[in-house]
Amino acid sequence: MSFPVQAAVEGIGHGGGGWIPLVHAAEVDRAAPIPVPVTAAGLPWALVRLDGEIAALYDVCPHRRVPLSAGKVAPGPSGEVLECGYHGWSYDRAGACARIPALGENLVPRGMGSVAVLRTSVAGGLVWGAAGDESDPLPTIGADDVFLHSERLALGVAALDDTLGASVVDGAIRAGHDDRGALRYAVRAVGDHSTEVFPIVTAARRTGEAHDWAARLAPLPIHEPSRLPSGDTE
Question: Locate the Rieske domain: which residues (predicted)?
Fold first, then answer.
């Protein structure tokens, strides 16, 4: 396992090797053909749909260390690739370098320029990423569960859980109870003191529960103005 992936697993903070929520899948599709940049455990990833599947590639081109999220999807020798916007080095969804324009079409020295990737899966409308054992199951998501738009908080995962009085129930998913009722959410560690939280509501009570989440998050240090209680999923 390459260093970026190993570091991501060790730094997630809520179960090494488990699945973490990255972004709403619809956001990736809206941004196409431009990748969506996502930070997990202090490391950058570029999310993009290649040949119908969403891939998560380490967001640094090994050529000149330029973010791959500044590139775009392009045709490759054997399928779609993510093309770096600087010198055109291109990568398939497995992270293998598929093209180096300066060397000529389809000429890539063996093992040259590959980038780390996360395994990805879509569930509950979210793209989930993992770098651990392939046997790790996805978190259980109910048929009536709806993930609201995420919020980035200036709190670490443990501090957020303590503040909301919640505990781990299934990998990245937390559950608890406060004076507004039961609460559930999924988390992604962005850094030591930054967490992306994805509130979970039930479809039948979506509007009311979205307002409850807006009230819960209002006193917390949020990096951007709250987009709740609209509760729109991506």
Answer: 19-129
